[in-house]
Amino acid sequence: MADRTNPSSYTQQRPINNSTTVPRSNTTTNHPLSSLLRQLLQSQSPNYSGQLFGLLAFFISGGILLLLTGITVTASVLGIIAFLPVIIITSPIWIPLFLLVTGFLSLAGFLFATGAVVSWLYRYFKGMHPIGSDQVDYARSRIHDTAAHVKDYAGGYFHSTLKDAAPGA
């Protein structure tokens, strides 16, 4: 701590190279008012460094992805141009092979789907409650209630119509 009564103990700060600014000393002031002011200024000033960093990362990654997309499209077009004669010459082999593979994959998919449906139905009717059985039960009860309501409404309608058609009956 400097002696405040002795003015010679204060260090004089002078501008460097005829500038008007005075360099700050490396010592920090521990005055409570200055620390409070520093906290207020830092809390009130908006901090855009995180947003700036995010924007910078967005543009860099976007540029890299755009470059990679351009390289991929260019390589695909050049590959098609280079292999187009080979593809045209061997097309009598590729077309039946494509149809055969497509048919096999379709058949396998249909068989798998049929097996899954049969397995689900078996578990449902055995009372094992597979996934989605509660929704099926709810839909079935709604259909049953609606059918009963329509039956009651239509029965009353047709009964009154028959009485009107044959008043003596």
From TrEMBL:
Its main location: other. InterPro entries: Oleosin. The chain crosses the membrane at residues 48-68, 75-95, 101-122. Keywords: Lipid droplet, Membrane, Transmembrane, Transmembrane helix. It is found in: Lipid droplet; Membrane. Residues 1-27 are annotated as: Disordered. It is a multi-pass membrane protein. It comes from the Eukaryota. Pfam families: Oleosin. Belongs to the oleosin family. This is Oleosin 16 kDa-like. It comes from Camelina sativa (False flax).
